[in-house]
Write a sequence for this structure.
């Protein structure tokens, strides 16, 4: 099965930084954000309160910090590499759908090299060999590449932001090796990836805490990021080194 991509609320902080420094929003994108499709806002705000005020501070945050604090780093890195390797085939297919043959070839090479020589992916041999580690691409990203809209925005309890377009991502679970995962294995993948994400963003918590409307901020940033992913793939662009340096400087200021 396709494991749920971790979307605990704090993952949106890194999304905000990437979306904010990647390009200045034009009038069209600002209009898109202001008219975000949120027909379930009342329900979503209740779910946000549950996630933000209860699940995160009392469950997600302490468990994540315990995992990172007590698990040896080499073990955590190996687990992260293994889990990431499971997504390479589906990312290869989705890049082919988007017409990104070069990226698809990289995903293919990374999968067979790391699976064969990297102990099923626990060791990232492909990166050492100079094969670029591209971001995971889901079918929903491919649909966005061809102009399919996000659809209604939904805040899922214990999971986070979600759009109807992302429901297409279940197709990714039909590719090996994700198709070999049962429910519990998929849940474990989601939890382990989510704990790493949550723990890495502790220093950025103040950004949401200081917002006058954390729900609206999260919604707008998430939709902007979804639109940005579709736009960047349609133009075959990547965040350049100057923008990455800007992001690093911004993070340093937060620490």
């Amino acid at each position: 099965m396709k494991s749920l991509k971790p979307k605990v609320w704090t993952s949106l902080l890194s999304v905000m930084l990437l979306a904010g420094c990647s390009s200045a929003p034009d009038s069209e994108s600002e209009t898109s954000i202001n008219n975000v499709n949120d027909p379930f806002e009342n329900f979503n705000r209740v779910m946000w309160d549950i996630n933000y005020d209860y699940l995160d501070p009392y469950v997600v945050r302490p468990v994540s910090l315990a995992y990172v604090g007590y698990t040896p780093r080499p073990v955590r890195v190996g687990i992260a590499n293994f889990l990431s390797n499971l997504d390479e085939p589906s990312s290869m297919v989705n890049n082919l759908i988007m017409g990104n043959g070069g990226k698809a070839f990289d995903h293919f090479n990374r999968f067979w090299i790391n699976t064969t020589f990297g102990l099923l992916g626990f060791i990232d041999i492909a990166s050492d060999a100079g094969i670029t580690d591209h971001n995971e691409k889901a079918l929903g990203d491919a649909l966005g590449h061809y102009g399919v809209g996000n659809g209604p925005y939904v805040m899922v309890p214990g999971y986070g932001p979600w759009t109807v377009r992302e429901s297409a991502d279940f197709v990714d679970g039909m590719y090996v090796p994700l198709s070999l995962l049962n429910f519990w294995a998929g849940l474990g993948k989601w939890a382990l990836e989510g704990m790493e994400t949550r723990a890495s963003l502790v220093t950025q918590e103040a950004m949401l805490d200081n917002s006058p409307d954390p729900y609206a901020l999260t919604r707008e940033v998430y939709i902007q990021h979804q639109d940005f992913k579709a736009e960047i793939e349609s133009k075959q662009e990547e965040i350049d080194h100057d923008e990455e340096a800007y992001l690093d400087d911004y993070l340093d200021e937060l620490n």
User: Anything to note?
Assistant: The radius of gyration is 18 Å. The chain has one domain: 11-17+38-249.
